[in-house]
Amino acid sequence: MSNFLFTDEHEDFRASVRSFSQSQLAPGYMARATSSDFFWDTYRELGRHGLLGLGVSEENGGQGADLITVGIACEETAAADYNAAFTVFNASVAGGMLEKNLQPGLREKWLPGVISGELLTGLALTEPESGSDAQAMHMRAAKVEGGWLLNGEKTSSSLAAHAHGLVVFAKTSPDGGTRSVTAFFVPLDTPGISRHALNDIGFKPIGRAAVAFEDVFVPDENVMGEIGRGFQMVMGEFDYTRSLLGLICYGSAQAAIDMTVAYAKQRTAFGQPIGRFQGVSFPLAEHATYLEGVKWLSYHALALRMAGRPHTKEAAMIKWWGPQTAVRAIHDCIVLHGHVAYSEDLPLQQMLRDVSGLEIGDGTPQIQKMIVAREMFGREYLPYGAPKATA
Question: Which residue intervals define the domain Acyl-CoA oxidase/dehydrogenase middle in the entry (predicted)?
Fold first, then answer.
């Protein structure tokens, strides 16, 4: 486990974000979560409170926060509003990617709006026939004078229904393997782009969407990083995103646990509070234990990243275990509330639908377990890394 404690600055920041989240985000969670409209007013309020520029340096208008601070922001906002927490997460990750990889002119044009909440950006990697096998993408970028022509389709792109721009990954050479993929920053008002919002059971205001590109011209200056290095760029971010998503899972599920403990203290059956029954208290004790593990494994991975140490295994552990643990905890909280939770009067059912999406997004449990096994056994023990049989 990482040898660190939260500093006084971290604790002050936590108290500030918790106060804001519980007073400004929690009361409107259900109304926002059940609508497919994006919560622009709330998003700008997140920007005014400095929660959208945490991953951007002070030099470029952000807060220049360390990764532990970003994790605290994700955890505390998730305890009040899962979807708002996702936008804090997205802005922190996307802001850092844009700052590091955009050309100066584009960076100056886009970053201030991302930080303030006026502009929304997302990531487009998944395709209809290319999900976990990201290298199998069909999206193509052909070199033309002054830029590139993009053709293909992306799907399951979070925020794409509302975003102003996307980081789009496309193959720029047919046979280069992982070195054939390049990242492009694409404004979504560019001619040739069409969008189709997906009708999700949760995550509704986030606007997951499919995006089609037909001869979309992107100037050379919109290439992010190096040509042919887009796959490496996004893979390098996954260890970070998966660590943060663990804290979103923790924050949301811990809020459900706290709600259920409070209910079990005042709800009576057979002449006493139901919290006195082990059938109620023991499941909550178990979930609290598992969730505490998710929390500290997430902060451990962030601390390793800050120290420049490997953390791929830890991030993959978080990504398969965190959402599963959170979903199971929230489900049991619904059951322990009884019939009153099987309605839209309480937010528990909405929390379950929202959090369950993270079991799939950003890497399935099967892929994460394969990554953990690879780190334990070695790459040669992967199914696709097995030596060929000899005659």
Answer: 123-216
**Domain 123-227, CATH among 3.30.1490.20, 3.40.1010.10, 2.40.110.10, 3.40.190.10:** 2.40.110.10
Predicted TM-score (pTM) of the model is: 0.94
Contact between 167 and 126 (Cβ < 8 Å): no
Listing DSSP states for 68-137 in one string gives HHHHHHHHHHHTT-HHHHHHHHHHHHHHHHHHHHS-HHHHHHHHHHHHHTS--EEEE--BTTBSS-GGG-
* Angstrom distance (rounded) from CA 170 to CA 125: 8
Q: List pLDDT tens digits, range 4-45.
A: 679 999 999 999 999 999 999 999 999 999 999 999 999 999
pLDDT digit string, tens, across residues 313-333: 999 999 999 999 999 999 999
Tell me the CATH class for 231-384. mainly alpha
Q: Which tokens is 270 given? A: 């057979």
Enumerate the β-bridge partners of residue 319. none
Buried b / exposed e across 127-142, counting CB within 10 Å, b at 16+? Answer: beebbeebeebebbbe
